[in-house]
Amino acid sequence: MNENCFDTPATLKNSVHDIRKDFPILNTQVNGKNLVYFDNGASSQKPQAVIDSISNYYSTMHANIHRGVHTLSQRATQAYEDARVAVQTYFNAAHSEEIIITRGTTEAINLVAHSFVKKGDEVLISGMEHHSNIVPWQLAEVNLKVVKVKDNGELDMDDFKSKLSANTKLVAITHVSNTLGTINPVEEIIALAHQLGVKVLLDGAQAVPHIKVDVQKLDCDFYAFSAHKMYGPTGIGALYGKKDLLNAMPPYQGGGDMIKQVTFEKTTYNDLPHKFEAGTPAISEGIAFGAAISYLNGIDWTWAAQHEHELLAYATEEIKKIEGVKIIGEAVHKAGVLSFVIEGVHHYDLGTLLDQMGIAIRTGHHCTEPLMQRFGITGTARASFAIYNTKEEVQIFIDALKRAIKMLK
Ligand SMILES: Cc1ncc(COP(=O)(O)O)c(C=O)c1O
């Protein structure tokens, strides 16, 4: 693989109509209607460059990576490691070995829960966490403390300050809530935690599609994310961790690649990042993750942030005009997520009817059951936006919503 494989294009894309051309699935018809895909929070669609990367990998270079002496293995290894460097550069990590390739956010958090904390340690999470940032800590049998969520969906920072102490081993909080859209004040959280010597893990699953994250600027200790929510393939993601912390942590899983030497008496472990990457990884997905990063490098992020902000603002304004609709999550700082409930209408029925009209939204508890309990609801309907969505699609969604409500009430 040559050094240009994850090049940044000379001009940045800042037109939704140009961007839409990169995503072939957007031309799909669903139930006889043009697809309106508003389930990006669950998983975003893929640009042609990512699809081609997977096909190209299997057509031209597939072999198992690391330690292979033959050409294909070396090519595949180079491409895989190039992708790691592309991720490192994109997130501005200081070292490529600080990027541990995982199956996604879930595995990244499980890694930290397994290797960084021990039974009885105090871990501070929030009431808006995804199950992936709750259950791993319960499995690790830590002493879990939970920061309250305010009625408008913002984190209760007074409660955070009262629960944070020098006894806290780790703060593990979502950067952006998948259900509420809330962008948490992570800079303040990190500063407060670090004043007390407490480490911070951010669940970046929902932040990375919307925010250009710089891990050194944030100064977080760990950052977990999934490729499939940022226009990359499924089954791959990463844990960013500061090198000194990762070096001090024991391996998460045992197997090939993570060792230096094995005897029946004793095993010595490989260096970072391989110490945490046991077994044959998702090679094609890893390389295609690099292609997704390359695609994102070609996007004008100032434009993208403004575009998504406009979509959210327009959808919010229009949905508020519909009688009986209540938005769940009205934080001042929000990413492109609109969760709502409708009086007298079950979210599941709504989702099913909208699907008949070609519109994909998500319904249910969004893997945030404690948050649903906090708001006294069983679930919400959630529209979540991506860079390829348009204002026209929002209008189609709003019109369809009005029709669906009439039919269901
Ligand atoms: C906030 C948040 N954290 C974690 C996850 C888990 O991500 P994955 O299933 O890709 O590991 C999700 C997925 O929806 C999420 O929204």
Which SSEs are present, and which pair or pack?
Blueprint: H1 16-21, E1 29-30, E2 33-34, E3 36-37, H2 48-60, H3 71-90, E4 99-102, H4 105-115, E5 122-126, H5 135-139, E6 143-147, H6 157-163, E7 168-174, H7 186-195, E8 199-203, H8 215-218, E9 222-226, E10 237-241, H9 243-248, E11 259-262, E12 267-269, H10 283-297, H11 301-320, E13 325-327, E14 337-342, H12 347-356, E15 359-360, E16 362-364, H13 369-375, E17 380-384, H14 391-408
Parallel strand pairs: 3-15, 5-6, 5-7, 7-8, 8-9
Antiparallel strand pairs: 1-2, 4-10, 9-10, 11-12, 13-14, 14-17, 16-17
Bound molecules: pyridoxal-5'-phosphate (PLP).
Pyridoxal-5'-phosphate is lined by residues 104-106, 130, 132-133, 174, 178, 203, 205-206, 226.
Task: Outline the structure in words.
- With 409 residues, the chain is an alpha/beta fold.
- It has two domains: 16-39 and 300-408, Aspartate Aminotransferase, domain 1 (Alpha-Beta Complex), CATH 3.90.1150; 54-297, Type I PLP-dependent aspartate aminotransferase-like (Major domain) (Aspartate Aminotransferase, domain 2, 3-Layer(aba) Sandwich), CATH 3.40.640.
- The chain has helices at 16-21, 48-60, 71-90, 105-115, 135-139, 157-163, 186-195, 215-218, 243-248, 283-297, 301-320, 347-356, 369-375, 391-408, and strands at residues 29-30, 33-34, 36-37, 99-102, 122-126, 143-147, 168-174, 199-203, 222-226, 237-241, 259-262, 267-269, 325-327, 337-342, 359-360, 362-364, 380-384.
- It has a seven-stranded mixed β-sheet, sandwiched between helices. A four-stranded antiparallel β-sheet has the order 13-14-17-16, with helices on one face. Strands 1-2 form a two-stranded antiparallel sheet.
- It starts with 15 loop residues before the first helix and ends with a helix.
- The model has no long low-confidence stretch (mean pLDDT 96).
- Pyridoxal-5'-phosphate is lined by residues 104-106, 130, 132-133, 174, 178, 203, 205-206, 226.
